[in-house]
Design a protein that fits this description.
Radius of gyration of chain A: 17 Å
CATH topology of chain A: Glucose Oxidase, domain 1
Pfam families (chains A, B): Cyclase
Function (chains A, B): Catalyzes the hydrolysis of N-formyl-L-kynurenine to L-kynurenine, the second step in the kynurenine pathway of tryptophan degradation.
Oligomer: homodimer
Number of helices of chain A: 3
GO molecular function, one term (chains A, B): arylformamidase activity
CATH class of chain A: Alpha Beta
Protein name (chains A, B): Kynurenine formamidase
EC number (chains A, B): 3.5.1.9
């Protein structure tokens, strides 16, 4: 069994969406070996920190919260698609050139995976491409940017996917991953009543 | 494939260690559909909130941090052992009655799994029992209390396990799990430089 870690490291100097100060995680050491005999830390973080899953509530009023999404959505056969040559956004036409099967989790590898700082012009999934994936009945869509869309009024890509029960993972790191088939495991923490969760996302080959 | 969720829900009224106020997670909604067109939350939480993994640094000066532990520790064959009849602590003698194999992840099911409030007299793993598991070369040990030990001066159970590279999971929920063999998946978030992480822990049967 070969395990590939496709998660962002979570630290105070990591990239955050639009470099907003309030989105940076803050760690506090509450005990260490100078003051006691153990080491303990707490964290303040946004639910959309690093590699994370969006549940429907993120963009859909009264949508499902992260604790209500079935766990088998997060352990799935999966396909990584290489779009590293795409400049601006992934379109329906880009997707039509790939073999996409029903009930598959798709991960979109782009030039975003090669950037460690937030890129205001990150490659995203265009709304008609999202509609195409809805029609293909995929199980989930992951991308290697902190957002799955930008500059689309009303967030149509999010809404098309989330209203169809299609899970979104943002903030993947796919630089070292080749196009092909894998098993993905990306389980959210069991936060009650919220719209998202950071995850440790991995791919497995030859399970 | 049958998936069993063995994680605690994370909410503001969950049980925390010794009911300490500062250990309770705090959620803040930073945007909702009254003030914007999306829902966003952040959280302040202790790394030992709910179901979580302790890395060596928790009790060992200069011990490995959670991001340095190999990922194959967290995806493993695993055995649930039923100790629901134990009153005070799990001893070497209790363990000797069970079949324990090298490189196995052991989960200790006790009466703790049936309590939703913090129990100051929770069942724990006694230090000689920890030494026995070290000699058996298990991969990891999980328990259904927020601590793997109590009232043992110097935290010997933690130290014996963590100094041997044996992973500890605390805060499991095993009420509905029968003794037997499973696959466990319990991946920590990729926090850099800290001693622990909350996890979503699951068991899989018939993968």
């Amino acid at each position: 069994m070969k395990i590939y870690d496709i998660s962002m490291s979570i630290s105070e100097n990591m990239q955050v969406y639009k470099n907003k100060e309030e989105k940076k995680p803050v760690f506090s050491v509450t005990r260490d070996f100078k003051t006691g005999n153990s080491f303990e830390t707490n964290i303040k973080m946004d639910m959309h920190t690093g590699t994370h899953i969006d549940a429907p509530l993120h963009m859909i009023r009264d949508g499902a919260t992260i604790d209500k999404v079935r766990l088998d959505k997060f352990i799935s056969k999966c396909k990584v698609l290489d779009f590293t040559n795409v400049e601006d956004c992934i379109t329906k036409s880009n997707l039509e050139k790939k073999c996409i099967e029903e009930n598959e989790f798709l991960l979109l590898k782009t030039r975003n995976s090669f950037k460690d700082c937030f890129d205001y012009n990150f490659v995203y999934l265009e709304k008609e491409a999202a509609q195409y994936l809805k029609e293909k009945k995929v199980k989930g869509v992951g991308i290697d940017a902190l957002g799955i869309e930008r500059n689309q009024k009303g967030h149509p890509t999010h809404k098309i996917l989330l209203s169809s029960g299609i899970i979104i993972i943002e903030g993947l790191r796919l630089k070292n991953i080749e196009e092909g088939k894998y098993i993905i495991i990306a389980l959210p923490l069991k936060f009650v009543g919220v719209e998202a969760s950071p995850v440790r996302a991995i791919l497995i080959k030859d399970m």
